[in-house]
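Forum: Protein Structure Q&A
Topic: Joint prediction for protein chains with partners

I've read a bunch of threads here and the consensus seems to be that you should model interacting components together rather than docking separate models afterwards. I'd like to see that in practice. Below is the full input, 244 residues plus whatever partners are listed. Could one of the regulars post the assembled result?
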Amino acid sequence: MESIRLDQVCLWRRTQEEFSYDLKKTLLSIFEGKYRQPPKKLVLDKIDLVVEKGEKIGIIGSNGAGKSTLLKVISGILQPTTGNVRVRGQIAPLIELGAGFDSEISVIDNILLYGVLLGFSRAEMKERVGSILEFAELEDYRFVPVKGLSSGMVARLGFAIATDIQPEILILDEVLSVGDESFRNKCQKRIDKFWDSHVTILVVSHSMDFIEKSCDQAIWLSKGSLKLAGDSKEVVKSYLDSVT
Ligand SMILES: Nc1ncnc2c1ncn2[C@@H]1O[C@H](COP(=O)(O)OP(=O)(O)OP(=O)(O)O)[C@@H](O)[C@H]1O
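Posted by a regular:
Agreed with the consensus. Here's the joint model:
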């Protein structure tokens, strides 16, 4: 059964998007008739991809190739400019952990809010608050606003919420670097359990060793295009041949 399908997905991004936007300067330049549209870059170029349920897919490619962007499009964090993305099943995007939190409100309220963002009902989330706090080791912080947590604690909370129920699709960006050593081991164990099950997994990594060992299939992205897809060992070999 199909888990993820991308048809001709393209994404253009403004190259200045990551820099702070200066409203005053922009308005002034419009007023003076000097305004120019910021340049845009094609970050994903006509991506076709079908992932079957339970497949473990590694995504490889050089810096800036579009790997993280592809994961964000599949997770619904970014909308493609053109093309279609279809995802079937509960998805746990373990990327930008905690990016959806409201720092002014309490840990408990954020658990409810974030869970709803991930597609769970409020009632369902209320039942899960206890196990999430326990896994994140944040029981003593339940009424503290998220701005009072350390960045590691925020990531722990994001991970605990996204993985509290076994997802059907797991999206991982690079080897997980959540929290301290002992928490990382705990996360790794939870992920290993998903790996042995029927969960569909998409993982970005620069470790070819890991991709070969852990993924059945791999896709190689190059400058936003899908260069090669297939058996992970073969894709890794072609990629390594091209860079050495
Ligand atoms: N917020 C953003 N706004 C505009 N362009 C962006 C933004 N984030 C990334 N890009 C651009 O999108 C392209 C793809 O970036 P992406 O982060 O997906 O690459 P990557 O393959 O994951 O790279 P890496 O291996 O370095 O993590 C790059 O050219 C990058 O400059």
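The chain has two domains: 2-89+168-243, 97-166.
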